[in-house]
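Colleagues,

Please find the record for the two-part complex below.
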Amino acid sequence: MGDGEVWATIGALALATAATRCSFWLIGHHIAIPRRVHEMLRYAPACALAAIIAPDLLLDNGQIQLQLSNLKLLAGIAAIGFFLITRNMLQTIVFGMLSFTALRLLHVF
Amino acid sequence: MRERDASMEHHPSSWRAGLTVGAPALFGIAAWGLVVGIAMVKTGLSVPQSLAMTLLVFAGSAQLAALPLIAAQAPIWIIFLTALVINLRFVIFSALLAPHFRHLPWHKRFFLGYVTGDLSVALFLQRYPGNAPELGKLSYLKGLLYSNWWAWQVGSIAGIFLGAAVPSAWGLGFAATLAIICITVPMVQNRAALCGVLVSALIAVVGHGLPYKLGLLAAVIVGMASAMAFEEGAEKWVIQWVKKRASKRAEKHNEKQGDDHG
């Protein structure tokens, strides 16, 4: 991506922040969000984030990698387990990075 | 009218109360900013670009999500749509907060909305569950928001300069993936959400080769739809079960009554 495009992307992202965060501050006074829309709003972000990390964990050069030599997948699964127990983001990131680095350097798989 | 004015006036002790309530989380916010700061530089953004992004966009999840898309040369409209979807929760937050401050001029409302972080909303609503005007309400919110904003920016800017100094071989890019995992997991609050997340992940992987990152868009739409379908299905199932139980009980009741009278 060229420099100009990156700047345009930053502008678009700022617009996305303003459009969502300021929405009801500017337009809504007594508008109630319908239940169906509320549900949709609740599920969409998790789906989008999952769609972003899944290829990062599962693909290498466009190929699906499900064997033990996929260290990112192993470290990612370990990190999910660690986070479910500790619920601490910073510790999970450190734990995940350490597992990833250890697996990489020790050539366990 | 006098009451309303009082709730919007500066009230130092409420301001400090907001700051104190939010303080324990500030370290975590700064650390999270640090990760995003490093990730921006490691994606190849220049220092001025990264600074502009953290100051103007000020939305960690959306920034983190945008970075791999920038690296993959995705079209800007796809990145914009993705950021919108990830920011959808802010629409709910703004709907929750805005009624408390509807008497403020529009530029102040815009500004308050723009700097509202996830955590501040929860803490504010714990303290002020009702919409009624109360003394120091605005100051309390400002105490929460401004400290949150500063913690985030300090962490993020430190990350930008740190990231520029750390060699790429350390694989710090993976830290961004781990950070996204940490924000996704708490969002999966029921089975329907889990279903949506799994379907979305599957479609994103299978549709990875589609042009313009359309696989991502398809993943979000189908994932969301399956979460809602799952919920609907589960709901219907529960309703049917309850109805069946009720009719069985009614039958038994009738039989019993029949016996009594018979």
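The CA atoms of residues 200 and 220 of chain B lie 6 Å apart.

Comments are welcome before we finalize the supplementary table.
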